[in-house]
Structures are given as C-alpha cells and as structure tokens.
Amino acid sequence: TTIQSEISNVSEILADLDIHEDKRRDEKLSKNMYGFLKDHPLGDTHALRLIPENDNIVADFIGATLPRRDQGDREFYCSTMLALFHPWRTGKDLKKDSETWDDAFAVYPFTNFQKELMNNFNIHYECLDARDDYRAQMKKGTASHFASSWDDPENSTDNYDVVDPNEKGNDEADFDDIPVNLQNIGKTQQNRLTQMQMMNNVLRKIGWM
Length: 209
Hints:
The protein is mainly α. It is 45% helix and 3% strand. The protein has three domains: 1-57, no CATH class; 63-139, no CATH class; 144-209, no CATH class. It has helices spanning 2-28, 74-85, 101-107, 112-140, 187-205; strands at 33-35, 47-49. It is flat, with a radius of gyration of 28 Å. Residues 145-177 are annotated as: Disordered.
C-alpha cells in the first residue's frame, strides 16, 4: 500500500507538471491561438488560430475538390462534411462503430450556418452542370440563343438578346450601379459590362434570378 501511495503521488506530481507546462506553452501563443495537446505530433511546433466570423473571408480549399452530395460516394461525402464541421480528435469521435457515415451525418445537429455552407459547396457543381448542359445543347444545335459567360462575346457570331439598361420599362434591366453611357468608357470596360449583361441573361433564363 505504501508503494501504491508513492506511485499515486508521483503520478499526481507529473500531471501537475504537465498542466503547468501546457499553461506556459499557451501563454506564449498570440491572441486567438490555441496549441495542440502535448502528445499531438505537432504539439511543439504548430497551433490553431481562431478567425472571427467575417462575411468578407472566403475559404480556399487546398488539395482535392470537395465531394458532391447529389452523386458519387455518399459515405465519403458524409465523412468529409463531418470532418469539417464535427469537433473531433480521432475518427471514433465522428461516428460509432455500429453506424454508417450516412447515419452519423443524419443525426449530427448541423447549425443553420453549416447547412448554408454545404449548400454553397454544391452550387459550384451546379454551375459546372449548367455549363456542360449548355455546351451539349450548342453541339446539338438546340440551345436557346441567349448570352453565356462561356462564349466569347467579341468573336461570337450569334445574335444575343442583350438587356439594354437604358431602355425604359424593361423589367429585367437592373444596372443602377453600373455606368450605362458606353460612349464614354474604354473598350475593356465596355466588354466587361457586356459580359455582365450576358451573365444576367443567363441567370434569369435558368431561373437563378
């Protein structure tokens, strides 16, 4: 019993030393910086920085693209989204052994903001689908003659129905913040405005505006 008591005392002392060491390490970090646990492989060299929510910051993912939610491997999609939004230290924190990734995804209480982000992730693929559909229609000759941001406005020979922002009574014209006197601007700006008008037509045609 005496030996067990001494072992317990040593363990408590070591635990206290670890706590003090972690505190000293955290005190050296800048504001909003948080260190990894002591046993983490990057614990001595890396830390996480908490960035306040800001609508002007756009996340730029490095590496492979995010999986789609509407096609492909459903399990891979669910595991990726849980890894992004579910706090975890090991994979076992994300789901139970008896669960599939789809089951764990279904029961996890994602916030409204996280759901909005996942919806936005998929918009990228919806845009690619719309582009591919339009190109397929163009090859078949069945595409409607409306402007597209994937066409070259300078070299195209099609007669596009471009919205005239100067035309009164045009419900689709909504360019209050865009200079409309095209005679007093350069060629680059004129091409830019033309492309913006074309994109406006595209979005209206496919029902996104």
